[in-house]
Amino acid sequence: MIWPWTPPHQSSHIESWTILTEEDRESRINQLLDTIEESRTLSIGTLDQLDGLMELYETDALSIERLKLITSVVACGRVNPGVNHPHLAHAMSRLVNWLMKQTDWVNAEGTALEVIQWYERGGKAIAQGTSDDTAVKIHLCDIYLYQERWQDAENAIRRLKKTEPSNNKLVHSLANEKLARTLLAQGLNDEAAPILKKLIGSRETIKLWIFFNALCLQGEVFLIRGEDDLAAQFFEAAMTMLEQEGLW
């Protein structure tokens, strides 16, 4: 199975943290945690700063400290969620991401399902956090994919496609790429082929990295069929595209 390429991401808040000295950074961390603990709430402003800090810790590979920070936020929100549900869900989506990086699949899955259940119960009351709802659903798909739990992955991806608005082209194209990957892993090549054909035919409207993955998966379809020459054409097209975009 060819695993997908995804572009790197860096928080827009990270720069303000990197210019601080280690002592100032530690002081700011403690201030944030004290604010959260005293108020028992999680504001958007505080969350923005936490986002930058979480990214910084990820960059510095200070995983234990980052986990302490995120779990402090989550613990606070769980005690008194109320109107902070969207903020808490955002923090928990970051926790899911961290747990995935640590390959802690059991806790990652449990936390992801908890967030999804909140959104299902909350409806419009927490609609402002729907991007986190979608992100966690995508995380759940990946949790199953990386464990090679193909049927669970397929079910999660199909639920994502069913619940996500049809005008969200990015999520649907991403879901289709994951679905094709999952079907191939289950030996359902004939079901995966039309999905990949549609993705490849949508080159102008989908993200570069999704298109690249679709080309590679289509090459894999032909490899499975024993059509090595056709497979090579798609693999070469994928590499040529990267070269043309200056990514290789």
Describe the structure.
By secondary structure, the chain is an all-alpha fold. It has a domain of 82 residues: Alpha Horseshoe (Serine Threonine Protein Phosphatase 5, Tetratricopeptide repeat), CATH 1.25.40. The protein contains 12 helices and no strands. It is elongated, with a radius of gyration of 20 Å.
According to DSSP, the number of beta strands is: 0
So what's the CATH class of the domain at 167-248?
Mainly Alpha
C-alpha Rg (nearest Å): 20 Å
Total helices: the number is 12
- Shape annotation: elongated
Helix fraction, binned, reads over 70%
Oligomerization category of the chains in this entry: single chain
**Largest sheet geometry:** none
Strand content: under 5%
| Terminal Cα span | 21 Å
Structural class estimated from helices and strands: mainly alpha
Stretches with pLDDT under 50, minimum 5 residues: 6-15, 123-130
CATH superfamily of the domain at 167-248: Tetratricopeptide repeat domain
What would CATH call the architecture of the domain at 167-248? Alpha Horseshoe
If you average the pLDDT, what whole number results?
Answer: 76
Task: Look up the CATH topology of the domain at 167-248.
Answer: Serine Threonine Protein Phosphatase 5, Tetratricopeptide repeat
The secondary-structure element order is HHHHHHHHHHHH
